[in-house]
Amino acid sequence: MSIEPSIKYQAQRVNFGPSQIILASPKGRFSIRMQRRSVVAGVVIAAVGMVLALWSLAMGEISFTAAELLNTIFGNGTAASERVVLSWRLPRVVMALALGAALGASGAIFQSLTRNPLGSPDIIGFNTGAYTGALAVIFLAGGGYFQIAAGALAGGLITAALVYLLAYRRGSQGFRLIIVGIAFSALLASFNSWLIIRSELEEAMSAAVWGAGSLNAIGWEQAKPALLAAIVFFIAAAMIAPRMHMLELGDDAANALGIRVERSRLLLMVVGVGLTALATAAAGPISFIALAAPQVARRITRSAGVQLGSSAILGAVFLLLSDVIAQRIVPDTSLPVGVVTVSVGGAYLIWLLLREAKRN
Amino acid sequence: MRAQLQISSGSMAGRDEDPTALSAIDDPSRQEPPSAPETDFEPEHAGLATSNAKRMLGFVLAMLALSFCVVLSLAVGAKWIAPVDVLNSVRGIGTPENMVIVNDLRVPRTLVGLLTGLALAVAGALIQALTRNPLADPGILGVNAGAAFAVVIAVAVFGLVNITDYIWFSFGGAIISTVLVYLISSRGRAGATPIKLTLAGVALGAVLGGVSSGITLLNPEAFDRMRYWGAGTLNNRSMEMVLVVLPFILLGICLAFFCTRSLNAISLGDDLAQALGSNVQRTRITVIVAVTLLCGAATAAAGPIGFVGLMIPHIARWIVGADQRWILSYSLALGPVLLLLADVIGRIAVPPGELQVGIVTAFVGAPILILLVRRKKVSGL
């Protein structure tokens, strides 16, 4: 029996959605389905990040040619070039990429959890609490890098735990969590600005530099613990990503799909907070990447919701780019990278909104 | 097991994002009898006050609280002046010392507190209604960032040191940045949708904030001035400042109440509002103009004070439900209550000095907000 031509014509016009790529292990135990556009965009952005990383390793007060750089990286460089590239510049570049990815991924997790484009780890007060912890260390103990990092970590985690506990009542509710988080952040932000006002100008300014987020103090010694933690959290994030997308369907639907809603939410929150905590402890509360990276990635990949992988890749490249700019924009001074992330990220988001309007 | 499911179904998706549904969730007593999981016989958007008579009564109580706070603000400070003496000083028959303190210091300060409090609260209610986002505060349109950026320019580039010089810079910065946010978000066919407004505001605020902090971190003088301006204070306000901001705030309030009905329609969604005959585009523009006037004037008068605009509308909504007319009225009354109370506490908290009102506001407001968001619905309240 033959199919009527008109029906055939209609069948060809059925839209099956964006084209997909499916990777699976031989017996199909593990499989992953990705949109072709997301994969292509991710690869392109990662390639841009790679080029940028090599460029920022080579360029600076002492510059190297491409050949010199490659020789140094593969262990055939001079003592001087090895010192400059491998000991000074490389940890900073690697940390920029790792912390940027951590911030982007945690932003995606929180925006998905709260189903709100303004959702970020900030809403549970983590960064404000970390700033309070760091200020306490700076003003009371006058500590160095690791003391400040520990203070920030303690301040942030205590705040996040308090917010979660105060919002907990037969399950943590998205909305209640947000409100308690805002209230706590406002409280601590006020306390921070009071600390800044009543301290000496010089001390206050150095505290404000930490508060803006900076990669200036980073060498291998500082980078190692952070990178180790980053690997652990990235693996955890990759494992819970599918659950994150099912939770977006709403608690009822996720329940029906076999997800333990409350446990998954807590798990997501722990990973999200862990990623932010690591970045904040290592480099201060670098703002805006967690907010902007998921939104920008969503627009580039044209996906329906925020995505973990593309947000992480974009966050990494974004922080590296910001750090390259921060080191060079004002001669003889290295600005805190957080100042640049907000300006550049904001400008890019504006451009994206304008372009989107034009296309429609 | 069944009961467990019902409890979670009572706090399900959809409502998470709806602040007004908050009072109707999570109370186990409401889940009984087990055979009827949907025990929401009341409309979902009802607040604590279920009839207009109760809402009116609450409004009168709020106004009484406001009057009490005004008297408190005139009487309390480094020198306690009894309410009777305050009244005499205002009428011009008090002791010379009291008359200076009350008429030249506390009356302008109280008026600025009153005006900024109500302006911020109403602006917050408007912007939360327009964007349908409970996280939105007036700062979302870039008002605070624009004002701060203009003041940084005034300090760092023009070297201005006088508070009165900052007023026009701050107001101008607020207006320009809001206009920019609107222009960015209104491109395209859909116009200034809530999500685009929010993102554009956040983006522009980030750019301006980043440049501001870059400038201040390189310029110790500017950093020093900005850390005080940025805290927000009612100290050292003069009668001239009151008169400068008064017309803008009055105009903003009029515009706000003019579009309450359309905002009620918009709360159903833009499409449905359009179908109901409400002019969504016009309402958006009116609301944005009102928010700019209110928040710009408030920030010019007292510096960037956060939290009032965010918190008061939530509280108003929990009391009165979803009707914007009531939410706006309650915000009008409760905003100044919070701000004046915070200012009074700031005056006596750390003698002999003072705490900036912007700092105290969060300390007074945050615990209240947390308590309220955790409460169960108490029947008959």
TrEMBL record, chain A:
Answer yes or no on keyword Transmembrane helix: yes
- Protein's cellular compartments: Cell membrane
What is the recorded membrane topology of this protein? Answer: Multi-pass membrane protein
Q: Enumerate the Pfam families for this protein.
A: FecCD
Source superkingdom: Bacteria
Q: What keywords sit in the KW lines?
A: Cell membrane, Membrane, Transmembrane, Transmembrane helix, Transport
Q: Which residues cross the membrane?
A: 39-58, 93-111, 123-142, 148-168, 175-197, 227-246, 266-292, 304-322, 334-354
Keyword Transmembrane helix annotated: yes
> Mind telling me which CDD domains this protein's record contains?
TM_ABC_iron-siderophores_like
Which family, according to the similarity comment? Belongs to the binding-protein-dependent transport system permease family. FecCD subfamily.
Instruction: Supply the name of the protein.
Output: Iron-enterobactin transporter permease
Automatic annotation (TrEMBL), chain B:
Statement: the UniProt record of this protein carries the keyword Nucleotide-binding: no
Location relative to the cell: Cell membrane
Q: Could you tell me which InterPro entries the record lists for this protein? A: ABC_BtuC-like, ABC_transptr_permease_BtuC
The source's superkingdom equals Bacteria
Signal peptide location: none
- List membrane-spanning regions: 57-82, 107-127, 139-160, 166-185, 197-218, 238-258, 327-349, 355-373
Kindly state which keywords UniProt assigns to this record, in alphabetical order: Cell membrane, Membrane, Transmembrane, Transmembrane helix, Transport
Give start-end positions of Polar residues composition bias: 1-11
The protein's name: ABC transporter permease
Its placement in the membrane is given as: Multi-pass membrane protein
Protein family: Belongs to the binding-protein-dependent transport system permease family. FecCD subfamily.
Q: Which PANTHER family match?
A: FE(3+) DICITRATE TRANSPORT SYSTEM PERMEASE PROTEIN FECC-RELATED, FERRIC ENTEROBACTIN TRANSPORT SYSTEM PERMEASE PROTEIN
Give the matching CDD domains.
TM_ABC_iron-siderophores_like
